[in-house]
Amino acid sequence: MKFKNPQSPLRYPGGKRKLAKAIHQLISLDGREVETLVEPFAGGASVAISFLENTEAGVILSDLDPLVSAFWSVVFSKRAVELAERVADTSPSLSLWQDLRNSSPRSDVERAYKCIVLNRTSFSGILHHRAGPIGGLDQKGQYKIDCRFNADRLSDRITTLSKFSDRVVVLRAQDWRATLHFVRKGWSTSKTRESLLWYLDPPFFEKAERLYDYSFGAADHNRLRGQIDKLPGRFILSYDDVAASRQRYLKHPGFLRINLSYNARIDRTERLFAGEILVSDMIARLRKRSVLPPMGRLFVFPERGLASRLRVELGSTSVAGKMKSGIMK
Ligand SMILES: C[S@@+](CC[C@H](N)C(=O)[O-])C[C@H]1O[C@@H](n2cnc3c(N)ncnc32)[C@H](O)[C@@H]1O
Question: DSSP 3-state assignment of 164?
Answer without folding.
Answer: coil
